[in-house]
Prior knowledge:
The protein has 842 residues and is mainly alpha-helical. Helices cover 77% and strands 5% of the residues. The protein contains 33 helices and 8 strands. β4 and β5 (760-764) form a beta hairpin. This is Sodium/hydrogen exchanger.
Amino acid sequence: MDVVVVTAVIAALFVLIGVAEPLAGRLRLPYSVMLAALGILIGAGASFLLRTELTDALNPVAEAILNFPIRSNVFLYVFLPTLLFQVTLGMNLRRMIDDWVPIVTLAVVAVVFSTVVVGYGLSIVSGLSLVTCLLIGSIVSTTDPSAVVSIFRSIAAPRRLARIVEGESLMNDAAAIAIFGLLMGFVMQGVPDPSLWGAVRQFPLLILGGVGVGVLFGQVAVMVMATFGRFELAQLSLSVALPYLAYIAAEQMLGASGVIAVVAAGLSMNVSAPGALAPGTWTNMREMWDQLAHWAGALIFVLAAILIPRLLEDIAWVDVGLILVVAATALAARAVILFVLLPGLALARLSPQVDRPYRAAILWGGLRGAVTLALALAVTESARVPPDVKRVVGILATGYTLYTLVVQGSSLRWVISKLGLDKLSPLDSALAKQVVAVALQSVREDVSQATENYGLSRDIVRSEAKSFGERLEGAVRAAEGSEEIADRDRVTLGLIALAGAERDMILDRFRERAVSPRLTDRILSDVDRLLEHARHSGRLGYRRAARRAVGIDPSFRFAVRLYNRLRISYPLARLTADRFEILLLQGLVLRDLDTFIDSRIRRIHGRRVAEILHDLLDRRAEMVEQALDGLRLQYPGYAEELERRFIRRTALRLEKREYDLLYEEGLIGVELHTDLMRRLDRRFSREDTRPALDIVLQKAELARQFPLFSELDEATLKRLSKALVTRYADEGDVIVTRGSAADTVYFIASGAVELRMSRQSWRLGRGELFGQLAMLTKTARRAEVRAIAPSTLLALDERRFRRLLRRSKAVQRAVRDSAEKRGINVPELDRMRGQEVRQAAE
Length: 842
């Protein structure tokens, strides 16, 4: 085909992409449905022009469209990696982990179940071979949820719902294509009834091989990009090459799943790149991939839709019946997963609850799109697939895709409206009226001041003031006439607003380079969790999420075990430094939120609600400060270095703001502003490198601060610090259980614990110890020890503790005092005291 013609067609496609989005908005249709409709019209129109005798002038254009060099490999090797890679870069992995059960259920279990249900159902009514029917089932089992996600976002549905659907879209393509590849091999080999066990045995290579290739390529790409430093365009170029290299290497060199390799490479970069690249580079990279994915998604829809008329050329009425069978079985399989399996998992407390209206929207929003058409096209293009199989796969997959787009896609917004997902709750509706009334009162004051400053005509001002006053009176009457909002609901709404303000403040700090992208994603995940828990459980949920944000996460616990058992310190050092930075930022943001409550929330919800919110913030600030105190105690020198670094970064941020203001006011020119920004970038780059943390030295420093160890000489203290094992406990964690073996003594470095025995309880804090009495009396533990605050403990085994006890009179006194408080006689302490008396007498 002539290069000029190809170029013209490509340009026309981009014009079509640009026109489709505003047209879809005007017609209130999902964007993907509009693209598919336009593609079908173009394909049908081109076919009509070639067959009609009305005109031959447009035949070259029609031939160029129908013969455009687009094949299934172009979809799978060019467009699909782009879409998958962009989704992985934009994912909030920490928040995805919270909903991994429903995501995996919809993306993997639902795909396998749908393949089997559609395959066997079609086999029963069609007379086709089982392997052919299963192949069709795998092709139609992958969904394209872009339409339902866009509608969810337009109606401000909870972020969690969009995350579940986006997570499904990322993983179900990989699962469906992996199953398709296995079944396609059976079809080409002419196997009528495949061995499922033989297919299952091939999955480890497909999945693990793809994961291995993706992680390897992702990590190598990040390391190479990190060495390029200030060459941002080179780093962006490498990111473009990464998904394609991973896909080709997995498919062609290892025989693994290229789709899984792309997903693994993207997830690997999502985890590693924010800490290795400059914040601006990471932001620009994600924006670039957003644009590339927008183009790729639109092109794949249009080009695939152009092929639909060709694939349906020889459709018969019996084929229409089979398409309806596919539609019914696919919908039934998805309904079983959504309305039977997911509620069952939630009932068993294995999965968070997904509300029924949202499950219904996900069910009807399970549109099939470009990936289904691309897989069907791959079957029809294969020379090793029998012609009758090509025909039935092409017609059924294409017909079912068209059915979902026309029937489900065009009615999706109506279904969402009937489910009530596009309407405000009664609480939000009542609040909206009060917000409007408060906002208009503020606007009236500001407009009055502005008109005085501008010296406008009094008649005009009086006329507009009268009109505005009428609107304000109407808003006030509506607010007074609405249902009264209970204080409990006002607190919930205030907490939601508070979490939203906290999110905005953190994003501002990120834009000002006060915090790295990697830590920003983690902090925003905690804020999103605050918002969702407040929305669902009010104050109780907000407190629970706040404790979790300050607590010790599983990755930190794993790093502690890794250090304690294998002496590998890097993960723990990195996560400890991360924790310090996060707590510092949380403390600063919480102070700013106090001002937000007084300036904004108090005016809408009143003084009582504001006081409750202040109290909740004070409790959060106390938890953050307590955690920071524990870190300062453990790492005093390092704490000072981080705080100095934070001050320097703050100064640079304020300096940049001042230069930008001078430039906007025209007091400095563009050349001087550019030079000043270049100097600041160099200084920012120096401050981006965080000081290293030596865990071993810091633990020795921590042991040195214990009053119980004050009598030990330097050599003994050094040996003791190596023997001590660090353990972290969150509020509520059980440290010691009743009846357990008494083989360890714990020293409290920070935090507090509670000992419970029968009807008695004791509370211990920093500098105290527990677990020693059961050890010395050689009895099973009779007390349960539970952390009542985030705590850092130093554990010592029995042999080393007895040696310490013989050497330290301070430890002996502490053990003796604790035994006297609980009325326990410790013979070993009496023997030690007797020996001391005899030695003194001698």
